[in-house]
């Protein structure tokens, strides 16, 4: 018994009771209390839904309190900030367009698209997940249709835009190889021959993206969330783009950059910038250069605020030797030690334990590779 059972009057009553009683860690007590008044299977479904709503606030904000979820549907759903960005881009290029969402899940992208003034239809092969998507549009007062069906057999001719979110989980585990997506990559590639947007994992290889298709890597609050492939009327003329939410800063070109020694400041590009291969755009933005052509750190003698990177002031260069680093930690009374690394085979948590920070000072240790040599820099986060 899942979402559908909670949509009639009795189910809605049990769900309301479960949500009012629910608190993390009190699941058993709530179930026991409600089972005195309602069917046990219905109570279990309602308490599960209440728990999912609490978890979903991180993705959907206040909307989560009115939405319906399945466990897998919640895990795979697009968070609102990303969905709004994507829907806004479609609406700006094609106002009022008809959009079909293949594999719509619980309807996160349908919600964002409908709010952007797009006409939406969702296709979902799992009936309970489709019921959740349909209920979510209704609960939020949005127009749209959700049908149970298979993405590969859906007639797309009537729609201006196709949006697809291929399944990237198998047996409860994430799938990282794009060739293992469902629907298969051959179907995705065919979609990209028309006006489409396809959500993919951020690890998508650059050479897997077809010609005349833009790959956009998106981070939210500093964390890379996904990539999206844009084609047809949604293609903006660049091969790769990085977009940083919630601010919306975006970059799609990467000029040449020189390589040189460490300057007064080090810049760590946002993960979306790195995934998109646009690190040299940061160098251009801060009047800087690369430490190494294969390493995603930028350095400069100028402190320039940029949305595309975090800045650190270089205090000193240190020998990359455990004994020397331990002495540095002890001498400077460091108790809180942030360790950043790139291009070096080291586990920051293991190294931190070995260095034994016990003081009151705070420091950042950046470890990277220049050529064949590992180097370490004592830094101050700005």
UniProtKB/TrEMBL annotation:
Source taxon at top rank: Bacteria
Residues covered by the Methyltransferase domain: 99-164
Gene3D superfamilies the UniProt entry points to: Vaccinia Virus protein VP39
InterPro entries given in the database record: Methyltransf_25 (IPR041698), SAM-dependent_MTases_sf (IPR029063), Thump-like (IPR041497)
Boundaries of every THUMP-like domain copy: 310-381
Name of the featured protein: Methyltransferase family protein
Classification lineage: Bacteria, Bacillati, Actinomycetota, Actinomycetes, Propionibacteriales
